[in-house]
Amino acid sequence: MKYIKHIFFDLDHTLWDFDKNAALAFEIILKEYNISIPVDQFTKIYNPINQKLWKLYQVNEITHLELRYARLKETFDALEYEVSDELIHAISDKFIDNLILNNFLIEGTIEILDYLKSKYQLHIITNGFAEVQDLKMKNSGLITYFQTITNSELAGYKKPHQNIFEFALSAAKATKEDSIMIGDSYEADVVGALEFGMKAIYFNENNFLVENDIIQIQKLTELKNIL
Question: Where would one find the signal peptide in this protein (predicted)?
């Protein structure tokens, strides 16, 4: 790692605690629309559905709008709670508005960024929607740590496509040899970066089984032992 100068982080589920912030947003929304489903029951169903659909979105099998609709439609269907398409679209819009009201970060985020910022140039590569991701970065205070922010809308490609990594390195004036990617998505962040020719670290918080030669951590602060 002695040649590393640039660290590229994913945002959601890596630094920004999407699941916690989403639960708080849904808690407000379910009350507002008088939907009698406990928020923990709702998010238990919603979270894996959302992750499944994001994987399809990453490889262009569904659109942004299809993702936003389907993740709610499939959740309500699984809960056997009947809602109209009109209400699903209204909740979808309200969710984006409420999501950025809370900005809890993954444990250890600020500690590790403070540790890394004097040693490396820090950057973001995210598949999230540009306007929402920018607001997350600003509202959470993360933006002050990063020299560049590459999102898939700006780059025109999503991780794991190699072009988004090429775009991000160009914006950062970095090379494959002096860069490393850190993220929670094995396919998008780790495999994508490795196939592009960058080093990668898998933020494997849930200890999923992966290939033995993949560098992985379960807590962000473990990066102090690597970088």
Answer: none
